Fold this protein.
Amino acid sequence: MKNRIFHFTFFASILFLLLICQSNSLLAAGPTLLPEQHFYDVKYYGLDLRVDPDTRFIQGYVKIGGEVVQDATSQILLNFYDHMTVDSVQMNGQPLSFTRGADILTIDLPQPLNTGDSFTLQVFYNGYPMQAGLPGYGLIFTSYNGQKLVYSYNWPYYACTWFPCKDHPSDKADSVSLTFTVPDNYHVACNGKLISTNALPNNLIQFKWLTHYPIVSYNISVNIYPFDVVHSSYTSTTSGTFPLEFFLFPTHTPTAQPQLEWIVPRIQEVYEHRYGAFPFASEKYGICESVISGGMEHQTLLIMNYPSFFSDIVVHESAHEYFGNMISIADWGHIWLNEGFATYSEAVYQEYWNGESAYQQEISQNMAGSGEGAIFVYDPSTPGNIIPYSLVYLKASVVLHMLRYVMGDSLFFQMLHDYVTVSPFRFKNIDTGQFRQFCESYYGSDLGWFFNQWIYKDGKMAADFYHYWGVQGDTLYFKIRSKPSTPTSSTYHAMPVPLRISAFMSQFRFANRI
Ligand SMILES: [Zn+2]
């Protein structure tokens, strides 16, 4: 590791102890889609819902456009919680039969479809969301400062508590239309661009938002409150001027607005320098105030609580626009590709504005908080299992710091910049194996030894220098011993270790793998 420094008083060369790691095969992650849900590819969701913040009742429909990728597909299976009532399902205005059960809506197609056939379904439904699922997930009805507040928190697989969908990050909809009708004293903030607002009878107002960027189901966001709406803009060095839109609780606007107008350009300057242009520049960079704990990276509409505006959470969530939103994980086991990158980006931000010592301090703090387990999530059956903070955030951020050391600064950041700006994963999905291969295409040789031990295995590096050395001629031999970091860890780690060897008149630095 970069901070390990050793002092000696001899001219020397180094004998390295190379520890070979066993290869580790990928395990399947979950919760997984049902086999039949792989028979189609979602292209479009169109939500059109009436939401009553007082009664917590919603009603309307979702239009789902898709393309069949399996011959003789006779049913479309959607995730949708059983507590919601489905009134009807239609295709081209004709009713279709359907069944419910185990939080799956199974729709019978009028005739089997073959690969390449497209379809559009319309599901009419109503109900009171959050009668199932975990507290805090789904469509949340609450209040702030005496006003009702409604917001969605779909992550990781709770969009289907309030609208039928294919609720897995592997299938991004190419576009989403979000139309919400609410009492006319409310404002509705969603992903993408506001297309229209229409005053309706009975003191109602309808907001229609539209995004044309591919989006995972957990990122589909609606927020309903009498927000102050602040319009600003950011002039990028790479992608022109794009809108900044902040949706704030009115009592916080006087302090939140100047803070966000100060920090967001600073964040974008760093990320454009290191990663490339903001991915959603043709729509908006949005932040919506909420009452959640911390922040959530809804695409083009980050949500976070007021204190987060003044913390590194806004730095973290903004990084997800690149890592997690534009490039999304193929399955939950690979969540470190979202959270590790966003956490590492906090250090990148510190380095850019406050120098290397601030970067090193951030990494050291993350290292101190890192857990002993594996970063890869083998059991994503609950939200808590998916995001063990000490592993997929902290340890993963340190592992990226180590990957930077292995690859070298110029290669590492060239790789990251290309990952964001030209890679085939842009607006698509990726898994750990693909990311490893992408890194190897820059590094020029195998990185299996690195990813296998640091992503798939447990433990942290623990290395001892001990005074086993000898001198032969003008050569110094010594050993560095890697050992399991805990008595229960089975992992030995290989990693380049920087050494500084000082002589009376000279100083030398070495790095190689132990
Ligand atoms: Zn995050």
